[in-house]
Amino acid sequence: MSESEKKPMTREELEKEIIKKTREDKEFKKTLFENSKEALGQLGVQVPEEVEVKVVEESSKVVYLVLPVNPDELTDEELDRVAGGYCTDKDCPPGALGYA
């Protein structure tokens, strides 16, 4: 499969990649907490200006449960972007949402 035919990454695949990178690269992990969009950009993820990214780290005594967005609360345009899945700057049109 060529670079231009690259299949978009799922959210689960992206999360696994981020976890792996934070374990291998302490500077990336630091940047992820301090400037999440910059760190995600290093992975080719485009995050629109109006989207806020929050990064938290679980511990042995604190576990986070993340609830997905309620589709009933999304506009049609937002649903279209979310339904498209995650993509990198190499396989997304300009301005596309960089994650699902």
Describe this structure in words.
- The chain is mainly α.
- The chain has one domain.
- It has 4 helices and no strands.
- The mean pLDDT is 79.
Number of domains: 1
- In terms of DSSP E residues, the strand content is under 5%
Regions with little confidence, pLDDT below 50 for 5+ residues: none
State the order of secondary-structure elements, H for helix, E for strand: HHHH
Structural class: mainly alpha
| End-to-end separation | 23 Å
Question: Can you tag this structure with a few keywords?
Answer:
single chain; 100 residues; mainly alpha; globular
Question: Topology of this structure?
Answer:
Elements: H1 11-24, H2 26-34, H3 36-42, H4 76-83
Helix pairs in contact: 1-2, 2-3
Short description:
This protein is mainly alpha-helical and 100 residues long. The protein has helices at residues 11-24, 26-34, 36-42, 76-83.
